[in-house]
Amino acid sequence: MARGMLLAVAGTAVAAAIFGSIALQQVVPTGDNIVTPLEQKCADVARQGYAIHSAYPDMTLDEIPVDDARRLIKLDETWMNECVPRLPASVIIEIADGVERGAPMRGE
């Protein structure tokens, strides 16, 4: 009888632990929607660059006003030196697609 009671208590404890774990997984984010500071910086760089490109859609870099051309060059250098080599290709594509659609990044 004591042995049966012990098994019942142990079984209840195991079941509670399993259900508690499942509940926590549903409530606590898994990290899939977390945007790193680098991803945020690169998304900002992409948005700013896209805004300049959109403002002058049919112009070459030589035809864009000097201040905007300098800003675009700086943004492109930041994108190529800090973002492309350090982020996975899937994140780069996600940022570019989101900027084109005007969609917020995951986690924003």
Considering DSSP H and I runs of 4 or more, what fraction of the residues is helical? over 70%
Uncertain runs are none
Q: Whole-Å distance between the termini? A: 57 Å
Strand content: under 5%
List the helices and strands and how they pair.
Layout: H1 2-27, H2 37-55, H3 66-83, H4 89-101
Structure description:
The protein contains four helices and no strands. The mean pLDDT is 81. The protein has two domains: 1-30; 37-101, no CATH class. Helix 2 packs antiparallel against helix 3 and helix 2 (37-55) crosses helix 4. The protein is rod-shaped and about 90 Å long. Helix content is 70%, strand content 0%. The longest helix is centred in the N-terminal third of the chain and has 26 residues, at 2-27. By secondary structure, it is mostly helical.
Question: What distinguishing features does this structure have?
Answer:
108 residues, rod-shaped, single chain, mainly alpha, 4 helices
Quick rundown:
The protein contains 4 helices and no strands.
